[in-house]
Amino acid sequence: MIRRNAIPIAAVALALLLVLFFYSSGTGRETWEGLPQRVGLGEHVGASHPPGSPSSSAGHSSHAAQDPHYEEWNPKLNFKPGSRLPSGHNYTSVLVIAKTKEENIDWMDEKLPNQVKHVYVADDPKAPLHPPKNKGHEVMIYLTWIIDNYDKLPDVAIFMHAHQLTWHNDDLLGNDAARMIERLSRQRVWREGFVNMRCSWYPGCPDWMHPGETEKNDFKQEEILLAKSWSELFPLDAVPAVLAQPCCAQFALSRERIQAKPYAQYVWYRDWLFNTQLPDHLSGRIWEYVWQFVFTGENVHCPKENVCFCDQYGTCFGGEEAYNDFTTLRGELGDRERDLREWEDKGKAIEEAEKKGEHEKLEKLEKPEPGKDKDFRREIDRLRPIVDGLKDAAEKRGQDPKARAEEAGREWNEGDDF
């Protein structure tokens, strides 16, 4: 008797469970479709039609799945110009250096004796300053410094490599890191929030990395890895079609710009570096064209070269056209100097082959055109004083804070400094 009465009760309970299951499934599906899922180049996945489109909402109530307000999920930071500081303000700054044990940095104390320096040794865990893990090249060190100093930042932080003379330091500044650091306008860093230490566009601008690229490029090995890395670092930001800024991971930041992002965000970035399966050199190179997005919100950040050289380093040619004229003349001078070197190298190769009696080699060697070296030297002698004169005039012009402001296109009032 008890069993007979239990059968209808069980049937009713089962029916209720089935109704509840289907209701929950429908609601869960709508909720899932509304979650912000971004993959690849910003495609929305989870339904055959983007949530909120006419096709996806047909047959549903007004509560059908809609694209969430992404600004609420991942608020876009409002990167503002630096707050105004009084003329003559003594800007504090720290030079953050990423180095290995083998790299010599004696030049820093010699050339920059008064500059506060925080030198991290990537491959020496016993060094006073070292990263928690030797991975990602300078990226681990830069992020570690920000994390460790977030609440005690100077006005300006300068992030640099350890070598003094290198090709990726601008040749207009002698390829010299010491000169760049010494002449860097702390006022400009404070105004802009983020500045690349390199002004010259190549390599890096105006259209450099393409995260959607699928074909390997030996010169840009990280390019085909950028889309996946981007989706991991910035999961709620669509992967951009282009990433660009002047190379090569040396830049300066204001305190305000660093603190525009919460502390936890930098921890998140460093955790990605800890956990990524990418090789050391590639994880570092990924960030070379990501820093500008982190600190400006722009995937392409390519300030005009003349403005950068003028407002940042005090070399002011008087405008973009005058700067372009200078670079054309400097390029011609460089071409003639290269032509002369090649002419001389051909002559040296012939002399060496003659001394060694290498007759077969002599027949194959290209002979320098007689008298052409005099033409090259004559042109070099004509161009060099012009180029040097324009550069000297630009340096002198850059000593005037008003001239810097005019070339940069910013307001300047009597009594303002640089």
Automatic annotation (TrEMBL):
This protein's UniProt keywords: Signal
May I ask which residue range the UniProt record assigns to the signal sequence?
1-28
- Quick check: keyword Signal in the entry? yes
Query: Cross-referenced Pfam families, in alphabetical order?
Result: DUF3431
Q: Where in the sequence does UniProt note compositional bias of the Low complexity kind?
A: 47-65
Q: Does the keyword Signal apply?
A: yes
Annotated stretches, region: Disordered: 41-67, 352-418
Give the protein's recorded name: DUF3431 domain-containing protein
Organism in which the protein naturally occurs: Ophiobolus disseminans
